[in-house]
User: Which sequence fits this backbone?
């Protein structure tokens, strides 16, 4: 993945919080995450941008990074022997990568920027630090991600989108 890493002077997640709170989609993320949780989580996140067409997650990759979408949209698709099959469009206020984050298994879909995107990432190492330093916030995040996985697994159309 080739991304444009930008480190804001201060980890300002206000745009991400607003996107999450405004996301009313069927697989909306973080309705249980409060602004206080986000403020606690912010120092553990890495901000970056993704240009239209760039790949965020490659099917089969072993990466376990978790992503949060502040703005833009991403296409989630499964690559079979014949061609790509688009599964979902994921937008602002969504999380991606929760399947690999929890399972330690290869990614089961490819995620590509459909538009220019602003994203935040959380690596397993940083989540471990969060768990040690701020266990209540780590638990709230894990529960919100668990709810997201459950919602996606209940939707036949989005089941494979658990990346």
Assistant:
């Amino acid at each position: 993945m080739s991304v444009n890493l930008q480190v804001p002077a201060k980890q300002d997640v206000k745009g991400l919080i607003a996107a999450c709170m405004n996301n009313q989609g069927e697989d909306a993320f973080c309705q249980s995450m409060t602004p206080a949780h986000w403020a606690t989580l912010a120092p553990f996140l890495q901000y970056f941008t993704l240009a239209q067409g760039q790949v965020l997650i490659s099917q089969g990759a072993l990466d376990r990074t978790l992503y949060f979408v502040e703005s833009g949209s991403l296409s989630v698709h499964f690559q079979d022997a014949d061609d790509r099959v688009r599964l979902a469009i994921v937008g602002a206020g969504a999380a991606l990568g929760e399947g690999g984050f929890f399972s330690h298994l290869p990614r089961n879909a490819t995620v590509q920027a459909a538009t220019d995107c602003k994203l935040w990432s959380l690596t397993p190492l940083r989540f471990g630090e969060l768990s040690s330093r701020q266990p209540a916030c780590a638990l709230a995040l894990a529960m919100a991600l668990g709810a997201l996985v459950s919602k996606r697994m209940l939707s036949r159309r989005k089941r494979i989108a658990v990346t």
Remarks:
- The beta strands are 4-5, 46-50, 55-57, 66-71, 74-79, 84-90, 95-96, 110-113, 117-122.
- The chain has one domain: 13-161.
